[in-house]
Amino acid sequence: MGLKDIFKKASEVTKKAVDRAAKEVKWRKKVGEAKREILTRFTVRQLERIANSKRISLYQEDPFSGERERLRSKGAIVDRLASCLSFQEVVDLARKYKVRYVDVVQELERFRQQLFEEKQRKKSEQEILKEIYEVDEKLESTEKKIDIFDLLQDFRPETVRNEEDLEKQLYQFLRARLGNKVRRQAPVGDQKIDIAIDNEVGIELKIAESRSKLQQLVGQVVDYMSYFDEVIAVILDVGANVDIDDYIKKLRRLGAEVVILEGGIKRRGRSREIIIKDAGRKIIIR
Q: How far apart are CA 42 and CA 91, in angstroms?
């Protein structure tokens, strides 16, 4: 091979590498657009919950003041999540929250075939469509997963005597809506969580009577996070001075959901005994 041929071969290799790199840039850009397209179909509340569970900060630093400020617009939140989540994670979340995503996956697959494997486009497209249809069919045939966090927003406890009473009320509330998916005092390692749902969602309840109770709740949530996909701390606020907002922030930083209920506690009055001694007899009046 002459010098001219060597340069020609090197030029062809370089051209192919540049072409491949350009295609990969186009592909990454398209994937980013696909992620944002799916994420825009979530509600802002759902996006905030995802950020919390994935420990993605929704704060940014102001370039002028240097202060941290929370992302407010839906578009800004979508961009932040899209930059932190893989496409597969976004699709999995769409399935979990029952958000439409199949059309985006189809479009992305068509783009990939045209960009990298145009000759095999028809065959590969049929295979991917079949797989998508099978996934969708399976999802349609299974019972829709109820959003437990949203369901808890409708729970209104009656005045309780203690945490066991609160747990019973919540158990009955969830059992009436979810059936035998709900269990009380489910074993978790060497502990027991108040309520478990399908071994996916764990719920721990506390009455905010003291800081020590809330500190205990934080410790329990840390332990339970490795056992459940989602851990929800349900706190009954009875008006005690316990810095409840600080503990809510701690729990959310851990990745737990927090539901605050307002209510009161029944306090049993102290029993009093009157003892009357009469002719050697002792009469007790309660």
A: 12
